[in-house]
Amino acid sequence: MINKLIAxxxxxxxxxxxxxxxxxxxIPKFIMDKAISNYGESMSAAAAAILExxxxxxxxxxSYIPAVKPQIAxxxxxxxxxxxxxxxxxxxxKEKGLVxxxxxxxxxxxxxxxxxxxxxxxxxxxxxTVCKGFDEDFCTVNPYLGSDGVKPFIDVCREEKxxxxxxxxxxxxxxxxxxxxxxxxxxxxxxxxxKVNEWAESCMADDYSYVGAVVGATYPEEGKILREIxxxxxxxxxxxxxxxxxxxxxxxxxxKDGLGAIINSSRGIIGAYQQEKYASYGEEGYAxxxxxxxxxxxxxxxxxxx
Amino acid sequence: MINKLIAxxxxxxxxxxxxxxxxxxxIPKFIMDKAISNYGESMSAAAAAILExxxxxxxxxxSYIPAVKPQIAxxxxxxxxxxxxxxxxxxxxKEKGLVxxxxxxxxxxxxxxxxxxxxxxxxxxxxxTVCKGFDEDFCTVNPYLGSDGVKPFIDVCREEKxxxxxxxxxxxxxxxxxxxxxxxxxxxxxxxxxKVNEWAESCMADDYSYVGAVVGATYPEEGKILREIxxxxxxxxxxxxxxxxxxxxxxxxxxKDGLGAIINSSRGIIGAYQQEKYASYGEEGYAxxxxxxxxxxxxxxxxxxx
Lengths: 306, 306
Hints:
The structure is a homodimer of 306-residue chains. The first copy, chain A, is of the alpha/beta class and 306 residues long. Helix content of chain A is 45%, strand content 17%. Chain A has helices spanning 2-12, 29-39, 43-61, 73-76, 79-95, 110-120, 147-160, 176-179, 188-201, 220-229, 267-270, 286-305; strands spanning 16-20, 67-70, 99-106, 123-126, 129-132, 138-141, 163-169, 182-183, 186-187, 211-215, 235-237, 261-265. In chain A, strands 1-2-3-6-7-10-11-12 form an eight-stranded parallel β-barrel, surrounded by seven helices. In chain A, strands 4-5 form a two-stranded antiparallel ribbon. In chain A, strands 8-9 form a two-stranded antiparallel ribbon. The mean pLDDT of chain A is 96. Chains A and B meet through helix 3, helix 4, helix 5, helix 6 and strand 5 of A and helix 3, helix 4, helix 5, helix 6 and strand 5 of B.
């Protein structure tokens, strides 16, 4: 899947991933009203609205981008109906040829991480039938529990030729509280980055590994350091756009081959129609506004990378 | 909910939480066969089997224990049907008067943690209707992203009078890889414990806080240190039984009031019938075997605490 991700990036000339993180505030009123008239004021209405909203955006942007990153929390907040909308969103994205990065940030003790890994990337055998759960192409993983919480994901990646992005230095304001602490002359995020590099080397595709990392666009200096520590890992870079990361901050996340990073924007794309810059599209034009924002993001990154 | 947890512990004289972590290997053949004959070899069959198995165990043990801890990964591995079984298990436990600790280990940037917090502990408003998602009483939280990944959970706890257990020192063999690293003369787990104590003091019920911690039974020395760092926090202690923790290891996790800790056992209880000690119950007696294991665990802990 890392090879497919790279091929998709080359085909679209866009190292971009669009975060499908729907909230009720982002969904146009006409979509929500229709869902409520069909399902009442219920979780099922929220789920139906999310799915319609996502499909509208995907129909507009799918051929311009290589990958999407649905944030499962935004679906999980609506209980079972919300997770059904997540499941259907993943399938719809795959039908469109997009690489799907499930932003699930799971991680637990070994036997439990195995369950997450097979539920999201692998399969279970029931009787003699192989069944797939959410079946994303990649997922994000939290490293706090150490190697034996991460390795079950790597084992499944190796079998399925899928991938993970391990949280190293996250984009949020308080990410330094633990991640920036000094340990034997380096930061915790550097130590985690060194581990990611070990895991990555143990699980290579061609030029890049199935094991990548998450490093926030909001921390470009740390990105530069981590790029060197983990040369074989793709870096998934959240924090561009709504969280404050700029195009010029992104250059150090890439390798000299022009690859090695994929930049995420969520609200900045899917909620573009609510921004002053794209207000002329109106609520009905939310999908066209998202496409315009994708094109602007692509140009911003192209200019930054020179 | 921390007050209800303490009341339930006093009523049952058992500082015990039973982990409802079903795997296909644990489910008796007669239950799985029936589910497959009803639903074919499918995720729905696995989910139906899990739910029947859980209900059997809960009917046997519910009046002897204060709380349960379903591990969501074990359900999530079976996709949407699995998560429906999780949802129904949570509701069934609550009908039985049990405190439900959702072992979900979520944690993300602020806006995303908010979505997890309202999905698992709080509610969303759709139109003018308040809807609840999974509605557990407590959940577990991963602290790697720092305060702004944890605070949304605390905000919801304060509103709903529910609680969280933050991962501090986990029970798995490689937990020390990051958690035991030296930072300014103390370990990372101590630093996280200090933060938990801050959060706990900001969110008190009566004697104890809505903010607790997870510390593995497999690390009793660390438990002793952390007990002192976080006096107001209940400690959820996994790792007893199948993972190797013994009754004598548990004494330092408790406060002088005899409270402050709740010990989890999962496979050791729900899979008791597969152990040599309880083999005479047979597969059909899996629930009675679980009850026998609960009683033995209670006695082991009572003896250890003197």
